[in-house]
């Protein structure tokens, strides 16, 4: 029986996935099949019955003069795994650089505008999720705008992934997302240390901090083996 292009593509991924996972530890064929099944379930199937936008509209909040790569990679990665539209809300100086990376991205040069919160908020009803923090930087005015954007996103119940300097903002103001069950934090080892200190003070036990974050109904998706080792089993990636 002839294989369709989708099936051939999945089979073609197997050597790549096997090599990637072999860099860490040996995985059985059963493990690989589970990974492939996960990929199949996540990537939307192509069909003529859908219109553009039905398979995901993502917003990335970040990007300033110094940092343009991170928001680009976050936005383009969403497209590569099946989302239809990726928006980047960045500063005016970052916009032409990010736009030059790819014509596929919708770039809004509004993040350093006095009306940034209003400008982004008008797009929120059209988005399925936000990624906050890649390439954001730590300028006080930008962080204040992002704070307003997070508040507006919470009010609409939009899922939010917070990374990079977005986590810096949360470490300064943990109450900003406390109790918001649609927020996912993705700290590395250093970022998790800041979150730990923000929750329990300097010198706190990281297991205690992780449990406290769980009680606050926050989801952690930590990055890096040293971060995983410091966390209890219920919070580590499988």
Automatic annotation (TrEMBL):
Enzyme Commission identifier(s): 4.2.1.93
Source organism of the structure: Bos indicus x Bos taurus
Cofactors named for this entry: Mg(2+)
InterPro entries in the record: CARKD (IPR000631), Ribokinase-like (IPR029056)
SUPFAM superfamilies with a match to the protein in the record: Ribokinase-like
Record GO biological process: metabolite repair; nicotinamide nucleotide metabolic process
Protein name in the entry: ATP-dependent (S)-NAD(P)H-hydrate dehydratase
Encoding gene, per UniProt annotation: NAXD
GO CC field: mitochondrion
The reaction(s) this protein catalyses: (6S)-NADPHX + ATP = ADP + phosphate + NADPH + H(+); (6S)-NADHX + ATP = ADP + phosphate + NADH + H(+)
Matching Pfam families: Carb_kinase
NCBIfam families on file: yjeF_cterm
Chain residues that bind (6S)-NADPHX: 135, 188-194
Keywords for this protein: ATP-binding, Lyase, Mitochondrion, NAD, NADP, Nucleotide-binding, Phosphoprotein
The protein's role, per its UniProt record: Catalyzes the dehydration of the S-form of NAD(P)HX at the expense of ATP, which is converted to ADP. Together with NAD(P)HX epimerase, which catalyzes the epimerization of the S- and R-forms, the enzyme allows the repair of both epimers of NAD(P)HX, a damaged form of NAD(P)H that is a result of enzymatic or heat-dependent hydration.
Molecular function terms from GO: ATP binding; ATP-dependent NAD(P)H-hydrate dehydratase activity
Family from the record: Belongs to the NnrD/CARKD family.
Entries under CDD domains matching the protein: YXKO-related
Gene3D superfamilies assigned: 3.40.1190.20
Entry's localization field: Mitochondrion
Span of domain YjeF C-terminal: 35-238
């Amino acid at each position: 029986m002839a294989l369709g292009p989708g099936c051939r593509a999945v089979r073609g991924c197997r050597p790549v996935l096997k090599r990637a996972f072999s860099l860490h530890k040996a995985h059985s064929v059963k493990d690989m099949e589970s990974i492939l099944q996960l990929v199949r379930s996540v990537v939307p199937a192509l069909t003529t019955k859908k219109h553009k936008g039905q398979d995901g509209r993502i917003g990335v909040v970040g990007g300033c003069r110094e940092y343009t790569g991170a928001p680009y990679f976050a936005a383009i990665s969403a497209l590569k795994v099946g989302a239809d539209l990726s928006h980047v809300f960045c500063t005016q100086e970052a916009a032409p650089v990010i736009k030059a990376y790819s014509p596929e991205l919708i770039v809004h040069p509004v993040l350093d505008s006095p009306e940034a919160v209003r400008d982004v908020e008008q797009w929120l009803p059209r988005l399925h999720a936000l990624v906050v923090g890649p390439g954001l930087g730590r300028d006080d005015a930008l962080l204040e705008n992002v704070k307003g954007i997070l508040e507006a996103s919470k009010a609409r119940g939009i899922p939010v992934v917070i990374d990079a300097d977005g986590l810096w903002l949360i470490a300064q103001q943990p109450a900003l997302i406390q109790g918001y069950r649609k927020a996912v934090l993705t700290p590395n080892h250093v970022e998790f240390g800041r979150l730990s200190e923000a929750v329990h003070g300097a010198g706190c036990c990281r297991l205690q901090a992780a449990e406290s974050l769980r009680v606050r109904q926050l989801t952690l998706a930590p990055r890096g083996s040293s971060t995983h080792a410091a966390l209890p089993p219920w919070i580590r990636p499988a």
